[in-house]
User: What shape does this take?
Amino acid sequence: MSDSYAAWIGRVIDGRYRLDRILGEGGMGAVFVAEHLRLHKEVAFKIIRPEIASDPQISARFAREAMATAQIESLHIASAVDYGELPEGGAFLVTQLARGRSLSRHLNEGPIPWPRAVEIAAQIADALATAHALGIIHRDLKPDNIIVGDRDDGTPLATVLDFGIASLSADAQLHPAAPNQPLTSYGLVLGTPGYMAPEQAVGDKVDVRTDLYALGIILWESIRGQLLWDGESLTEIVSRQMRAPAPSVRAGDGIELPEELDALIAALLARNPNERPESAAAVRSSLRALIT
Assistant: This one.
């Protein structure tokens, strides 16, 4: 923990939020576990440093995350509960606190048995279905943005975080996003190399199927325990995606899993969005059918 953020521990923000410990930090700011002093409830408290928040694009992204997650009510999404400005400049966003570890940390320990990986993916699909119904596309779905904990019975509980680059339709609260409804303009590339769909990586329009491609990568990597698309640069990664179809999740070492699951992952990873499933709800149903 940097000294500058260590000094924040114990500080009370807005008369209500006491910062108790740090969850993570980066170039833009930090995330703390805080206690709402009036409700006696732990929350996640994200701050953006003043010099970063002064950038209009960064400020807009932060506000977009607050707006997007405040609309969503889902067991599998950390919803926003408050948003404001810090006294010295900068901004803060308060969300529900997700319990567990990032999926990326779980994957550092090796592959996940396919039934558990499918259960996690079904919960992510459930989160996406809720967001998409409100006209919200995540656009940066990846293992770092998914927290996985365990219920009392040992089954996983997945929570999707970080809607900071989400796309919102102009009337996101009123109408669901159709599969072919573009929610961002041409030419803007936002996302994480290795998890962006081809259309996203080249700055083309995105829609709900862009998130489904990322879900396919996450499911593939969860079962295999390795990266699907790797490379030194965005250009190299996109070139690999464009040259050939994604390898079967069963390729190489003969992983045993249902053919229906292999086919579903292949469909999610189709380079052409029109060849992917049309909705997260449909993907959720297909995944549930494999484990029930």
